[in-house]
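One such shown below:
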Amino acid sequence: MKPVSPQRGAARKPAAAAARPKPTRRRKKSDPARTWARTLARKRPGLVPFVLHELAALYGTPRRDTRLDPVSELVLTILSQNTADVNSERAFQALRDAYPAEGPVTVHRVTAPDGTELPPEGWGGRGLDPGSAPDWAAIERAPIDELMEVIRPGGLAPQKAPRIQAALRHIREHTDGVGYDLAFLGALEPREARDWLTQVPGIGKKTASIVLLFCFGLPLMPVDTHVDRVSRRIGLVPPKAGPDEQHEIYWHLLAPEDVHAAHVLLIQHGRRTCDARRPACDRCPLAPRCRFLDAKAP
């Protein structure tokens, strides 16, 4: 019996080509933060505007206060880590006294219409007295034991003193001889500026976002302990979302023009109403949509 010959004109595929697997398309990884923001908007429509409106009605629309120069803001924020703001104020003033320098005087308070001096919005202390930035070069060169003693009123001096010196060293070495100046960050894309700052030893997303939001108006949401707690209770972020994850979620959740107000209002709510141990849910305007009270709140 003769073997069946292939049809005339039919192309013969080489054996290697026939065995070659077909290329597979790689699925683009989804962004969990973007996915959460879209899901929240679909399943709980209008939640973010509701929260901002109700908190502004309760506490007033936040002011946009003038803050310190960026390096002072960075050092003050390092001093405020894991301590009360009034303690970090004492430590920063001690730096001014121990390492004085001549320069522009900055004001860390605003004056209310009745003449009362108020701290900046979102700040938990009384506000610093007017004064110049300390001598950063002297602080960077200071013996570590001496610097620790100076900032001891702020607490955790053994951790914060080397962190401050490392931050100043990084800024000086990575700004092409400009010195202790972070003004260039204001011209960068927000997350690019944050990435630059988080390369500084001991600086995380929260500290970087505080500097960039309050010094340059860049729309980055700092997530401190109050923002973290209130956000998870309301359900603005997943119940187990950590601060780093929340920073990314808020990038997608908030319009740029709402970031400053959202940060200040959530902090005020955490300090004055949504207490960690005894939240005053009976007088909270967010109660109808809060997942802390009702796991199925709309």
